[in-house]
Every structure is written in structure tokens, then in C-alpha cells.
């Protein structure tokens, strides 16, 4: 199926967070007048949020329109076909077998990360992230009364396979030292990594997973960008590395980045362990 990536799309007048959201002089969040970009200059490109400027694929638009024409917008549950689509997608694209019972839907990955922190850690516990990283992770940790610990990525020269330049690497010695702290209960893995664009190799994921497993640290894998890859790049889901990793991790995914439907507010949280799944669902 081909797609039109050339036609310009009118991005104003829809309360676009990316294009119209702004702060006033008192730092209060407001929206613009729906006629001009928030920066006041159409030449400026807002690159601060992962929101594409292409139209959604026609089948997505058609499905949304057909549902809207029913004229009923009350409470609803995911359909059988929804679960089948999620399961089929990961089986076809990544060779991962997912059972329906493992999928817990939430209104977004960020709300899910907050709930996971509340469910599987206690106030005062430490949660590890790998800076520079998606800033809501820090907010989710600190707003819930936990302590953020950074296993900062290291920028090394001459490692980029695409061009001469630098590439971010994990600092495994630092990781091992920090997860050895008994107060550190959880590690958030961003894979592919936002914003440094690293698609972690199976070898890197294995080292990360073994260190966390050896120290009884639960891994939360945010894999929301897994479909946005160059043709010659292979994505490996953290849970696909081994059954042990699958049991010691919770994978967060969504169709929002892939099909530009973040405004529909739906994500899939994949939890193999039944007891953990029940705990999370009851939070």
C-alpha cells in the first residue's frame, strides 16, 4: 500500500499540542488563536513532541468515521478484533507470540508508567532511567514520591554506522553499580530510545536484562517507537530475548506513533505474570 507523504496538512484550528500549545507571560498553558503557529513564525518547526505531520492512513480515517457515524460515544471495551490485531501485528512483524490475557489496555503509555510505578514500587524507592531520555519518565518517578536514578548514556565518537560521528552507548559498569542498591526496584528501558534514536541490539539488551535480573530489578520497557525504523535496522523486543526476561519485564506499546493516532488515547501493556497483571489492573 502506498501513502501520500507530500501533501501539506493544515495543522491549525484543532488544538494541536505540537503546533498551537503555548505559555503566556505567567507560564500558564494556553492555546493560540488557531490561525497562527504558537511561535508566531511559520518557518519555525516544533520538534519537541513525537507527533507526525502526515495524515493518518486512509483505513484508520475510514474506521474512525464509520464509528463516529454511529452517534454513540459511551463507555466501551476493546473488541475481539482489536486484540486479534495487536496479537497479529507483533507475530508478523517481530515474531513475538502474545496471548490475549497478557494485554492490559490503558489511555496511554505515560499514564501506564505512572501506574506501574505506583503498583510495583513504594514511596522512597529508587527507579532507574537512562538520560538523556523522554522527560515524562522523571516526572512520573518524582511525582509519585520515588527517587530518580540516572544510568546516563555515554556519547562515543566514531560508532555511528550511517555517518561519521557519535553514537550513544549504555554504560554497563555504571548500571551494575546502581542497580546493586537494594533500594532500586525498577528500571525504565526506552527501546528504541527517545530521543537519541538508538535501536538497542540483542547483545545490549541481554547485558541490560542480566544485570537487572541478577539484582531483582523489574524492567519496564517502553517500546512505543518500535515500528519507526530504517529498512536495514532490526528491532528486538526486550521480552523476546529470553523467557526469564519476559517474566521480569512489562512491555509498553501503542499504535499511536506508528499511525499518528496519539489523540485516541490507547496503549497496550503486556504483562505475562498473572499475579502482577491482576495487581496492575486493580491499581
TrEMBL record:
Residue ranges of every copy of the Aminotransferase class I/classII large domain listed in the record: 52-276
Pfam family for this entry, one: Aminotran_1_2
EC code: 4.4.1.13
InterPro entries (alphabetical): Aminotransferase_I/II_large (IPR004839), Class-II_PLP-Dep_Aminotrans (IPR051798), PyrdxlP-dep_Trfase (IPR015424), PyrdxlP-dep_Trfase_major (IPR015421), PyrdxlP-dep_Trfase_small (IPR015422)
Record key words, sorted: Lyase, Pyridoxal phosphate
Sample GO molecular function, one term: pyridoxal phosphate binding
Chloroplast in keyword set: no
CDD domains: AAT_like
Cofactors that this protein relies on: pyridoxal 5'-phosphate
Sequence similarity: Belongs to the class-II pyridoxal-phosphate-dependent aminotransferase family. MalY/PatB cystathionine beta-lyase subfamily.
Protein name (database record): cysteine-S-conjugate beta-lyase
Gene source species: hydrothermal vent metagenome
Taxonomy of the source species: unclassified sequences, metagenomes, ecological metagenomes
